[in-house]
Amino acid sequence: MGLFKSVNQLGAWGHFKILGPIIIYASVLSVFPLGSSLWFLDGERFTSGPLTGGGVMASHTFLSLLLFYLYSFHLLRPIYCSFGSNGFETTSVPKEEEFSEELLLKPLPDYKVLAHFHFTSISPPSSSNGKHHHLFPKSIAQLVKKYKIRELELSFTQGRWNYDRWGASDPLSTANGKPPGVELWALFDIPTKEEIDATWRNLTHSLSGLFCASINFLESSTSYSAPLWGFLPNNGDLRYGALPREAVCTENLTPWLKLLPCRDKAGIASLLDRPSIYRGHYHSQRLKLRSDGLNGIVIEQTLSVVLQPIDRTSWSMHQLFKKSLTGKCALAKSSKVFLEIERSLVSQNENILELVGEADMVTNDQRDHSTIYQYNVERYSEHEALDIRVNWKKLLQVSFLQAPLHASRFLMGSGNERGSIAISLQSARNSTKGLYDNSKNCFTRVVILQVVPWYVKVYYHTLRIYVDGAIRDAKDVVEKINVTPSEDKVSPGTLEMMLQFPCGMMSAALILDFDKGFLHIDEYPPDANQGFDIPSALVSFPDFISRRIYPDSISSPLLQSYKGRNIVKSYTEVLLVPLTTPDFSMPYNVITFTCTVLALYFGSMVNVLRRRVSEEERLAKSKDKRKPGLIPLLISKISNKVRGIKEDSANQSQSSEPILGPKVVFKVVLIALIAVLGHYFFNSS
Amino acid sequence: MEVAEVEAEVEKKATATRSRLIVRLAALLVSYSTLVSVVCCLAGLIALLVLPLLAKNTYISENALLPGSANPVLSYQHVTQANNLILDIMNIADDKEAPDIEIPKLIAKYMEILGAETYHHKFSQPQNQFHPLYFFSTSPNSPPTLANLSYGTSTVGIIRAPRGDGKEAIVLVSPYNTQNAGGIDASASSIGLAFSVFSLLSRATWLAKDIIWVASDSRFGDHTSVSAWLNDYHNPNFIGDASSNRIFKRAGTMACGIVFKVVEKERREKYEDRDVVTMYAEASNGQMPNLDLLNVVHYLAVHRQGIRVRIGMFGGLVKSHLVRVLGEVMQQVGRFARSLNPDWRFEMPSSEYVEGTATLASSIYSQALGVPTGPHGAFRDYQVDAVTLELSPRFSLKNEHTRLAFLLKGGRLIEGTVRSVNNLLEKFHQSFFLYFLTAPNKFVSVGVYMIPFAFLVAPLPIIAASLFNLTSNRNPWRWLHTAKPLLITHTWSVVVTLLPFYISKISDLPSTHCMLTWAGGSLMALVILYIVFGSPYSKHVEWRLLKAVMIASVSIGLCLMSIINFATAQIGALFVVPMCLFALPIRVKTNNSLIRSMVMTCNLVMAVLGFPVTAVALMQGVIKGFGTVSILEFWDSMKFLWGWNSATYLYLVLVHLPCWLLFLHILFHPCR
């Protein structure tokens, strides 16, 4: 029964496996870009895939291709059905490609729970099946192949990782803390800079279509940068970009789930109940991939959610996710649930936490920072679902391992003209010494990577560094600095800085002044009045390694990744800079004013150009003999009157009525009266 | 000048050439300058009086605000929690030795229970130093010396929006004062009110912006603590003691500031059937928050919570007979107009007109003074929209039941406002920033209130041109002769502006002495300037020319001021424009003795009333009653103005005073 069910659930995956090659083969025939064709396989993605990703295509070719695909899909439908019903074998998973699923639950000190889903797919370097894959998502494999990606990480994050409370220097928080919005970086295996830039642009479009997000905004050269060592030491083949304003929602989760062989139909991913996970305080969904000749392609798909249990003192998996874990994904090599308990939660009072449910294995890490409880999902079934329950016996305030310095960033100044960016580093009092063996040279090295959009014009020479309330010469503190100044409408400014602070330092601040630039009218986003974002700065501490080493008896890709030499790093807040914004709601006024000014300008210009003064004077002289015009006559009279000069007798021959004589006034008043009366009578009738 | 040149040309060619139409029209206006100026001035005055009739109803312009679309969820549970805090504060105020240390601790403890990030902000009283050169900038950044001064402690709590990105923040400010023993009820209730809202927001899942609650210790005034905190938020000082910087926490760009305090009125003039909230919106130099913010508060208070909304109003004007008569006249005119044409609907009951006028006068006056009417003014200095709400309960706060009911109502009002601002994606920009209020739900927008000022200022250039034409000297550069007296007066006014800076450096002078020193110094400066530059009445200086130049300089000054603070320019124009129009030397010979004597009387009256000292006294007398006004208090009122960096001080000394001096010059012109 169970087997039958899993086959049914895997039906869709089976279709993918069998149909994928055929359709993609067709797409190769039709000279269609591979990267954007991948999502035509599923009916529901059929329209949204090309719409978001296919910006590169001309619209008519796009339409014809769309028709072609619809048609091919239709043609293939009978085969699809026949294969779907009988021709699929579940048992013989090839050994080369591997998939494993894991979930790590971790109680946090403020009674929230971190749930960290970790899915790993591995594809060996040369697949025995050529271009075909069994478990590994083909779209990703093609992406890697086409764009020659060595490493790539894409993260969608909503909310902020609370470094103070949720920890900052254990491997989980170092990996989990991501800036809000989208962050994408990639290392390419391409020699020249121009080719890398071109590949990056194509990659953003492909990912944009793949994940239903506006990652394609990273295509523009104003939005990505190439840090040399601030982010990851490289030879100029790294590209880094962030979109702080990108909203994250189920739209992005669905394509991410489709990369999993069981999707969210079976296994650990079935816990992903949308309302529950999006109710969390922090939500970060990531895709990380590495590819090289030896190991092939490895994808790590992780989803970290910080959930607030309804009852603060006790929670269980079922309460958190509103679903129960009834079994593993049949295609997974291993399927495990871990519960990690930090030592600081236990050490003070042994029975502050109580676990309900029996773990398959309990181990501590080498340095005794935490305890891991392991549960194997295979053991559980629909009759006996896995439900870990944790009870807090006592509420108390503890904090997890902090980074050596707590980084925060803020804006200084006010107004629309200028301001300053301040990065403030404050030592976490307890954790600078003792935790890490770093007291020999007693300098803390800090690397700061700050990417600033071009319309925030940072003056890098204004860098001021304050250490413990005293200004310090930059030469004394800065060990290495790399500045790429921004170029208007071409590239953002990048600042990479390696600083050396004495260990005993309590606080430091870095100030950079900037001017706010003006944007062209069509460069403003629709919500320009909100202000503009400066992406998060990355502060990393190269001397501090976050690692946890567990005994080798636990074979788990998640815990393996804990062993790596991960540098402790933290992201700062996104900043919102209000820029001068034109009043878009008043186009009418603007048009009227502009037109008036233009009309006046052209009128007077034409007048000046057209007039010939000497000729006019000659004309006027010849006119003199004739009768002068009425108005000049009047004006001369008026001016005479103004100066109190009585009218000359010479003018009396051409005497005329004064302009506002009693008769004229009488006439005007009469006409006005008639008009008013007429208006009154017409209106009253 | 251009007009005059063209005039001369026209005369020279004597009907030979046709000049351009616009020039001819200008010449026409200039030739009838007297008529034009009288008509314009009258129109300006009438337009000013008609403003209450032209006021429009307010409306919520920004759709995203959605006020009142969600039901308030503030419950009795939150309010009873807050009540515990109120009781604790009252106990501390009664029993403990040092309530000003204990109360911030208590508030911080309550904040931490809610899971907020908390810190204390210490500040000292700023020295009210006059810096004439730093006028429009915020106060210069001097390191505070907390060591030997008494300092206040504000308590700040921050709730991070659960799913927000932390780019923006809404600031709630609740001032309290422990020093004032009588008002501890009201102070504790302000904090309780803030706490009830804060405890609700700490559990809210819908927050998109962080919430900052500042329980500000207002022992040095409400404004001081808020502005000190805002200054440290925006311009922190990194040099010196770094510990205060270490604990200071921030939460992004401020979207809006809401200041609220509970005030218990001692004696009520009339029986109130509802709780009342009074809105204060005027910030420094006549800046106003976006009208939408006031609209949201008004809408929620009136239509959701049933609270009466008030704004500042001159009570004296409501009782004034003159205004009542005007109201009657307006009503009659409106009725007549309606009988002529039913579509003309500007009829207004006289009582409404009287109230509108009193409110409008208060609105114009508060803007013209350039001094913020509450702690919200500190926010506006950083381009943050903010409003102060003063809630006064219908029943006494001593009774626990009525207090709970009042807290619930007030808390729901603030909850609704926070929710509306939280809905905003962009900052406030849809609605008006330049407006006067004639009622809590009626406003006069910039397009309308500019008309009276335009009418008042329009005759000035025309009169100047016509006077220039009337002079006997025909040299087009003849006005240069009058540049000397103009230069003298303006140099003098600059000296007078700067003198208080040096006087205030001499410590411990009583204000009358300061005033006398200022007056004496100014007189001396004037005498020295005369000795250096010689008499202003040289033989080329005709009085007409002098008057023309004075009018030109005044109109430039008024127009500049109207850009900086419109209301000041508006009130100033009422004083200055008659002075400019009527100025006539005593010794001038005219034919009509009746008109001459009338003009002379007006001139003498204006010479007295136009003097800034008497003008200020007069304004204050009109508003506060004449009993309390003394001329020697001028120093204090000026100190008040520059203490708040109000540009009205600059206007009075740099525009009004030279105008008055030139007026005197004309008055005593020898007329050779």
Automatic annotation (TrEMBL), chain A:
Classification via InterPro entries: PIG-T
Pfam families: Gpi16 (PF04113)
Keywords: Membrane, Transmembrane, Transmembrane helix
Transmembrane regions: 22-41, 53-71, 588-609, 664-682
Gene Ontology biological process terms, A to Z: attachment of GPI anchor to protein
Gene Ontology CC terms, in alphabetical order: GPI-anchor transamidase complex
Record's signal peptide: none
PANTHER family: GPI TRANSAMIDASE COMPONENT PIG-T, GPI TRANSAMIDASE COMPONENT PIG-T-RELATED
Designated name of the protein: GPI transamidase component GPI16
Automatic annotation (TrEMBL), chain B:
Origin superkingdom: Eukaryota
Name of this protein: GPI transamidase component family protein / Gaa1-like family protein
GO biological process: attachment of GPI anchor to protein
Signal sequence interval, chain numbering: none
Record's GO cellular component terms: GPI-anchor transamidase complex
Record bears the keyword Transmembrane: yes
Entry keyword Ubl conjugation: no
Pfam families found in the cross-reference section: Gaa1
Taxon lineage: Eukaryota, Viridiplantae, Streptophyta, Embryophyta, Tracheophyta
Keywords: Membrane, Transmembrane, Transmembrane helix
Listed transmembrane segments: 21-54, 446-470, 482-503, 515-533, 545-564, 570-588, 600-623, 648-668
